[in-house]
């Protein structure tokens, strides 16, 4: 418990000291990031990427749609094939028939060991 209290106290002191010096450093980082983002070289690349995306978007949409259609066709084909393959040609035994057989075999083994 003492360790937890010391940890929380250290966390609080670190937060207080960090916020006093931290706000100024945060503003410096924010200004640097803003100036980098608004630099002409970066904006030219942003424009290039936007044009590329606009050109390729219809192809991507078509590719994804075709892929989705294939997946749906495969899943639909499996769903229709599963019930056919799940059916067996032999007749399932009823629960009472299997109970009679297991009871009969138990009686035989019990009577064989009793003699």
Protein described:
90% of the residues lie in helices and 0% in strands. The mean pLDDT is 75. The longest helix has 47 residues, at 40-86. Among the domains are: 1-38; 40-81. It has three helices and no strands. With 115 residues, the protein is an all-alpha fold. The two termini are 73 Å apart.
Radius of gyration equals 37 Å
Please give the share of residues in helix: over 70%
The biggest sheet amounts to: none
Task: Give the amount of beta strand, in percent.
Answer: under 5%
- The N- and C-terminal alpha carbons lie at a distance of 73 Å
What's the oligomerization state? Answer: single chain
The SSE order reads HHH
Outline the low-pLDDT stretches.
none
State the helix count: 3
Mean pLDDT: 75
Structural class: mainly alpha
Shape: flat
Count of DSSP strands = 0
Give the arrangement of secondary structure elements.
Elements: H1 2-37, H2 40-86, H3 95-114
In short:
With 115 residues, the chain is mainly alpha-helical. Helix content is 90%, strand content 0%.
Describe this protein with a few key phrases.
115 residues, mainly alpha, 3 helices, 90% helix, 0% strand, flat
